[in-house]
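Researcher: Re-running this chain for the archive, since the previous output was lost when a drive failed. Same request as before.
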Amino acid sequence: MNFADYLPIWNELSSQQKAHIESASETRKVSKGTILYNGNIDCLGLVLVCSGQIRAYILSDEGREVTISRFFEYDICFFSASCVMPSMQFNIVVEAEKDSEICIIPACLYKNLMDESMPVMSYSNKLISGSFSDLMWLVEQIMWKSIDKRLAAFLLEESAVEGSNILPITHEKIGNHMGTAREVVTRMLKYFQSEGMVKLTRGTVEITDEGKLRDLCE
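Model: Regenerated structure tokens:
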């Protein structure tokens, strides 16, 4: 693979550092639902998404999920390499949301690169800052935005991701993304259906009035 397409600091690395990354990195094909990292698994490393879709989420003691970030082709997931920063402790699960191909830069190698390269350290800090921003945005959404607005925004985002107004997703999965109960999602979707915004069938949500959903978000 061409690491320069993923790492903006690639040309700032030495030939030896590049060679270490190329020789030590591992490319994997993972099936939908595969858990890549859950906090109890040894620190995985930096995950580069070659194809597919990866999700990072928090899991409560009660088993409720809430999505923090989603990663697509050419994205980099830093949550699975949190151990390289001793002061950063993430109790986060990383899974393949779709069948995916990923490349993993081992944590120990990346830690060594951070110790010896200022560009790598600076880039890592930017990744951490972005992850922290995602967490703060999530907290803000949960605390201050009503469930109807959050659900409307989620459906529009999912439509953009899938490239379709017909979303093959269950109410439970939506609840997992949003950190709310399936029953709450079902009630709100039924309300959306009564207002002509969506059409519900088993395992599918079809957006029928995108304009109304956008108006609701605003």
